[in-house]
Description:
The protein contains eight helices and four strands, in the order E-H-H-H-H-E-E-E-H-H-H-H. It has about 200 residues and is of the alpha+beta class. It has one domain (about 10-195): Winged helix-like DNA-binding domain superfamily/Winged helix DNA-binding domain (Arc Repressor Mutant, subunit A, Orthogonal Bundle), CATH 1.10.10. A hairpin with a 2-residue loop joins strand 2 and strand 3. The protein is globular. The mean pLDDT is about 85.
Amino acid sequence: xxxxxxxxxxxxxxxxxxxxxxxxxxxxxxxxxxxxxxxxxxxxxxxxxxxxxxxxxxxxxxxxxxxxxxxxxxxxxxxxxxxxxxxxxxxxxxxxxxxxxxxxxxxxxxxxxxxxxxxxxxxxxxxxxxxxxxxxxxxxxxxxxxxxxxxxxxxxxxxxxxxxxxxxxxxxxxxxxxxxxxxxxxxxxxxxxxxxx
Length: 197
């Protein structure tokens, strides 16, 4: 077995099968969990509240796409436990892949948002069961400003996300989810620009 390697900060998705693999909401959640620590399919299933048999295929798809890798094996009572981790903490889509193969990036967005929604609903159910208020902050807004200000805001947002990633530690006693979408509104594109893409 190879020596355990820490995941890279980011991976550029430049193959259609990588994007298709993450376009499934369940696989997207598995990938996210494996960015935090190495886990077996069974451990991942227990954490997600699903049967392990439901995840074996998804682990295979993610591994074949080069998004997760086996980092260690362990014999336990006659069976072999396989531990996997994500190859990177975050993924970035190569725009050329989308242009060449006409892959819908919307499916990747949908998977990320669906995974977020499922986690928030899980939090809400758990909070209701514990007779507590759900600890969820949700903000949705639109802003109108200059391109210079947008670049400044994007830079601050990237710094904040990096700070959040650096704050994550195995010694932590609470786990939080963060989903950020910062995008230009469709109305900003002229009809000609929309037809070109």
